[in-house]
Specification:
Shape: globular
Order of helices and strands: EEEEEEEEEHEE
Largest sheet: 7 strands, mixed
Structural class: mainly beta
Distance between the termini: 39 Å
Number of helices: 1
Length: 131
């Protein structure tokens, strides 16, 4: 079964940290770029961070740059999102997604935009940041 499974969400106080994981299975992990998206209550799902399979470069939306770090463990088919200095506005459901077309993923991430053009979506993990 082709799937992405997120984990690591939870409740944290402002200025705290969390590490999210995205475990891939059922497909060739090396053929896809992976991104993290988030959906705040009442808002659209938008790009946060991504890592390109072609060269390992990473990209971030303006809202999280300098606070979040995306990384990949190819041996475990897992991508991580280390989140530090969390703010209440980081609250939302965090999804990981896989895309063959890395250009769309990169542009969506840099613009903090929404897209339905990802090939595989996870079901999400909830992050709540209290003030």
């Amino acid at each position: 079964e082709v799937q992405l499974v997120e984990s690591g969400g939870g409740l944290v106080q402002a200025e705290g940290s969390l590490r999210l994981s995205c475990a891939a299975s059922g497909f060739s992990f090396s053929d896809y770029s992976i991104g993290w998206f988030r959906q705040a209550p009442g808002k659209a799902r938008t790009g946060v961070a991504c890592i390109r399979r072609s060269n390992g470069l990473t990209y971030y939306s303006h809202a999280v740059e300098g606070r979040f770090t995306i990384s990949s463990d190819n041996a475990k088919n897992t991508v991580y999102l280390q989140m530090t200095n969390l703010k209440p506005e980081d609250t939302g459901v965090y999804y990981c997604a896989a895309a063959v077309n890395e250009t769309i993923l990169v542009v969506t991430t840099l613009l903090g935009a929404q897209t339905d053009a990802m090939d595989i979506w996870g079901k999400g993990t909830v992050v709540t940041v209290s003030s």
